[in-house]
């Protein structure tokens, strides 16, 4: 071993004493570290390593749910369906059972037989620690492609356009939906669960933002199209 590599270590969220790693790792060098030791650490280097492991667990967890991580953009997004048909995700809003179009194609205005772009629901996720507890900050956004996979040439303009029309209720609805994706259990969740989420944390503030005081009034049909909701869902969060 090169002298400069003697102090290098590999950190893994997997149990490397079991197969397939058990046959290639010297078990005498394996040092299990309790999660609580790193989750409560005050050492900044250990904290960064812990966050990297959390992000790796999050990527694995969401991939099985049809959500991928974009290294280029730094956010998670719903993948395209195999046949490029619209995908709706059902969940419980703050009021009742509802659903949201998390992948949908939009035809060209001048040629409805062709697709102009596909819109994928997405979010930025950031792990933070408050006190002795870790939380995942969810910041909703969108991912746009021209064929379901390749990025749209107009992603920036499309994202800016839809965010200009979004209300507080729309953003909150997306946060609730992503919280449902993160916390739900399914048949794909069999085996060891390395990352589990509880319910959203809510709290009250002394100040707020009135949508009507800053949001430009647009036609209801245009806003409905951008937000991807059916007419009977406009009143839901």
Account of the protein in words:
The chain has helices at 35-39, 44-63, 155-165, 168-183, 220-227, and strands spanning 67-70, 75-78, 87-92, 97-107, 115-130, 133-145. By secondary structure, the protein is α+β, with helices and mostly antiparallel strands. Strands 1, 2, 3, 4, 5 and 6 form a six-stranded antiparallel β-sheet that branches.
What is the strand and helix layout of this fold?
Layout: H1 35-39, H2 44-63, E1 67-70, E2 75-78, E3 87-92, E4 97-107, E5 115-130, E6 133-145, H3 155-165, H4 168-183, H5 220-227
Antiparallel strand pairs: 1-2, 2-5, 3-4, 4-5, 5-6
The tally of strands reads: 6
Distance between the termini: 59 Å
Percent in strands: 15-25%
Shape: globular
Question: Number of helical runs?
Answer: 5
Mean pLDDT: 80
Question: How do the SSEs run, as a string of H and E?
Answer: HHEEEEEEHHH
Q: What composes the largest sheet?
A: 6 strands, antiparallel
Share of helix, binned:
25-40%
The helix/strand class is alpha+beta
The count of domains is 1
The rounded Rg comes to: 21 Å
Contiguous low-pLDDT stretches (5 residues minimum) are 1-6, 228-237
């Amino acid at each position: 071993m090169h002298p400069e590599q003697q102090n290098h270590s590999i950190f893994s969220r997997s149990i490397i004493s079991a197969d397939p790693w058990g046959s290639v790792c010297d078990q005498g060098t394996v040092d299990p570290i309790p999660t609580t030791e790193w989750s409560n650490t005050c050492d900044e280097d250990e904290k960064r390593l812990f966050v990297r492991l959390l992000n790796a667990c999050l990527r694995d967890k969401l991939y099985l749910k049809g959500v991928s991580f974009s290294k280029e953009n730094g956010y998670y997004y719903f993948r395209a369906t195999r046949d490029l048909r619209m995908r709706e995700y059902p969940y419980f809003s703050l009021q009742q059972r509802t659903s949201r179009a998390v992948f949908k194609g939009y035809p060209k205005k001048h040629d409805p037989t062709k697709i102009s772009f596909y819109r994928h629901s997405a979010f930025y996720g950031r792990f933070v620690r408050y006190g002795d507890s870790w939380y995942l900050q969810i910041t909703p956004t969108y991912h746009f492609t021209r064929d379901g996979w390749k990025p749209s040439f107009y992603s920036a303009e499309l994202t800016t356009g839809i965010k200009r029309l979004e209300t507080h209720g729309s953003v909150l609805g997306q946060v609730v939906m992503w919280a449902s994706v993160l916390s739900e259990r399914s048949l794909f969740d069999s085996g060891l669960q390395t990352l589990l989420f509880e319910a959203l944390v809510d709290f009250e503030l002394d100040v707020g933002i009135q949508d009507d005081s800053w949001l430009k009034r647009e036609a209801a049909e245009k806003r409905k199209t951008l937000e991807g909701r059916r007419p009977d869902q406009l009143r839901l969060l």
